[in-house]
């Protein structure tokens, strides 16, 4: 059994079925991604896991505990960063960390977190004067100050500029390195691809796929395309029989091969065996974004809203 | 330091950083007494005030304004802000229940009310000869009931208002009529009899009159004590029923 075990989770708001039978497991020490368009049920799922919401049915175990029945214990061992939560305008960075540390039985030294999350220079700054990136780093530090075994991060980098996003990614990897299991909710495919060990793709309250980012791309079996210019005479028919290859065509001196899976490896292997050198080799790499589109039928990313 | 102590400490600091609430609740009442205290004859009994010295009326008004500011403006606005900005929700994800923040707010606001009243009486008596309330025990009882009534009304506003703006709006729309009916703009003696009867049944009217009575040396009237206690109980029960954490 994993650190988190979710079985057949269901939650309805009025006529809208926010979660319609969701099941997944999160292993110890991994970064588990939850992606999907707005309204897919991502946040509802995380709120149920953190014990902030009561599901209509289903079974949840976090660290072997029931988030509702064992509220007190769960809250001591789980850290959260929630969407749309703020702090009082006038509270100083160190006061917020010191305050939240006092809520937990075995808190981390908040001075260490200040340094680690690049907030040492803003120790005495009031919350309202912080930039978006600084606020986000403070929220993550607050999620970690209780020394949690599991951290839920909801829409971690929404509203951050590209540089701040990359800096935040680095810090999330540090969290994993320190042994914290992370559940990351996101609608940025690049973020999930970069950070997550495994990903669950949510759509309309259901999980359409759960796998590693690379596994999802492979399983989506999207046709890829490679093109090259052979430096020696080439029998194109010898390529069309290779595993994964769908079609081979030639225009002028360019050869274009389309296929799925690891067809590109098979093609380059065959070229090597025939001792044909190639120039201008290009392989169109598919990303999780493409896999997401193939699996859900609509594009990922914030423009999907 | 325990979580609750720390929470109360931080909320106190946040209150003291509020550039509107601090002058209005801590400075304005005592300045009011000092300013009026400079008027000659203000310490002489006035037949138009049921033979009470006007300075005692000003003292009672100062205490009442501070309580009304805290209960009808500061408390509901702060709590609505904490809810609208997800601060209560975030606290709900920690081992501390968000009700702890509510408790800390009540402690801090009560402390501010006591300090404001003590400043007014202390500085007023030293600087401009404001007498200390002569029926001191009755004054203390009335003060506690007034705090209870106005602060639970503040909780009720925070419970019913959907937004920060609504909380501030409802608070202000109660604040000014309350001052009028309590006899702040014109003394109770100058109000038409029907408004005087209504005043007895408003929380601030009952509070201000109890402060005047006990300042003068009389016992607070049971009607006023019951009025304040009644508001505290009813507003408290309804607020507890309807308060939302998010």
Question: Your description of this structure?
Answer:
The complex is a heterodimer of chains A (305) and B (246). By secondary structure, chain A is an alpha/beta fold. Helix content of chain A is 32%, strand content 28%. Chain A has eleven helices and 13 strands. In chain A, the strands form three sheets. Chain A has a six-stranded mixed β-sheet with strand order 5-6-7-3-8-9, with helices on both faces. A four-stranded antiparallel β-sheet of chain A has the order 11-12-10-13. In chain A, strands 2-1-4 form a three-stranded antiparallel β-sheet, with helices on one face. In chain A, strand 1 (4-13) and strand 2 form a beta hairpin. In chain A, helix 8 packs across helix 11. The two termini of chain A are 35 Å apart. The longest helix of chain B is centred in the first third of the chain and has 31 residues, at 54-84. The radius of gyration of chain B is 18 Å and the shape is globular. The A-B interface holds A 50-52, 72, 75-76, 78, 80, 82, 84-88, 90-91, 95, 98-100, 102-105, 146 and B 1-3, 6-7, 10, 13-14, 17-18, 81-82, 85-87, 89-90, 92-96.
Could you outline the blueprint of secondary structure elements for this entry?
The complex is a heterodimer of chains A (305) and B (246).
Chain A: E1 4-13, E2 16-26, E3 31-35, H1 42-49, E4 57-62, H2 71-77, E5 78-81, H3 93-101, H4 110-116, H5 132-144, E6 150-154, H6 162-177, E7 181-186, H7 189-195, E8 198-203, E9 206-211, H8 213-219, E10 224-230, H9 237-240, E11 245-251, E12 254-259, H10 263-273, E13 278-283, H11 288-296
Parallel strand pairs in A: 3-7, 3-8, 5-6, 6-7
Antiparallel strand pairs in A: 1-2, 1-4, 8-9, 10-12, 10-13, 11-12
Helix pairs in contact in A: 8-11
Chain B: H1 3-16, H2 21-37, H3 54-84, H4 87-92, H5 99-128, H6 136-160, H7 164-182, H8 193-200, H9 203-216, H10 222-242
Helix pairs in contact in B: 1-5, 2-3, 2-5, 3-5, 3-6, 3-7, 3-9, 6-7, 6-9, 6-10, 7-9, 9-10
